[in-house]
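Just scan this pair:

***
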Amino acid sequence: MMGRGCAAGRRRSLLGAFALAGVMALASGCGSPVDFYRPGEGGADEPVVGLGGAAPYVRPRPGRPRAADPPGAVPVAPAGGRVYAATGPGMIAPGARDMPARLYVADGRGIEVIDPRTLRLVGRLGAGVAASGVVPSWDMRRLWAADTVHDVLVPLTARTGRRGRPVKVTDPAGLFFPPDGRAALVVAGRPRRVEVRDPRTMRPRASVPLPCAAAAGDFSLRGRTLVLSCAAAGALVRVDVPGRRVAGTLRLPDGARPGDVRLSPDGGTFFVADAARGGVWAVDARAFAPRGFVRTAPGARGLAISRDARRLFVAGGGTLAAVDFRTRRVTARWPLPGGGDAVPGGVSSDGRALWLADGGGLVYAVSTRTGRVLRHARLRGRPAGLCVHPQPGRYSLGGTGLYR
């Protein structure tokens, strides 16, 4: 008995000595075994984002990579098995929470920056850049302006608006980032291809030839497939992202003109806007085959998803329609100001407003509940693209408002 008691006493003494040594090591300037970051730094899923800062909304997982590690270590599978589980109201990634809400309007001559609360012009970026669209980077800390006139992508720091060195890219019709963040996929109109590039430097890595000229698209549930739409050819193309090859082509019925693409919340269906037929196609994500058509209004071309992921907004031809994902029925049709051919730029963080822009120089927000115009601004230029930034999500997939 005395031997066991002495042994226990020695173990307690040793534990106490180790604890004291740990405290002395920390006091002497040795680093903590847990990485601490100032607010706004660190990854979205880090165990500690910042002392005194907001806690991350994603539950930390064992063995998470540090902020300095490559972004490819971020989990690809959506939380809870739902595609948009991390894009609900207010779920801004920690790294983007300190960024002011802004509207970035590409008007073919530059990018006008607007405060969505006051609708005041607060800046102009990329003067001399014939931007046709603005796309957030995978980590949402950078914006890429696509200039199809000068064949360049221009990097812009999201927080400061500082312009970086343009990257030469032939006819950048679309820019996407796989969920793992390991690559940038630049969709080129001429020649028809997908260029695989470094997501930070945009240095080319590989090229995937396409059978038709594509632009809009979205990723499958696991992000292994990118489905692109070819408007002129009336077709969809399925690209195997890891294999860097075209895995299939789907010809839609004659007369179809596919536009924007969105994945359903359950990951089983791609919805494709069709301006010519005035509605959206439902395409089985696994079989890559049509599974129905929902008629909304003539000119349907742009798509956006509500913050609760229950409705699909379809814009175009002077009409905004709301489609219920579960029943695949139109639940509302609202006229848009002036009957213009508006394109959606994104849903507000709280989910109450959908921002749109039309070529006539109007940028406005409509209520996602009633369709009523909440506020609007008239610009001098002719908007060609609209980006609402930042938006809820763990990361950006590029395109027009694609987040997971």
User: Anything to note?
Assistant: The first strand starts at residue 102 and ends at 106. Residues 2-27 form the longest helix (26 residues). Helices lie at 2-27. Residues 2-81 form one domain.
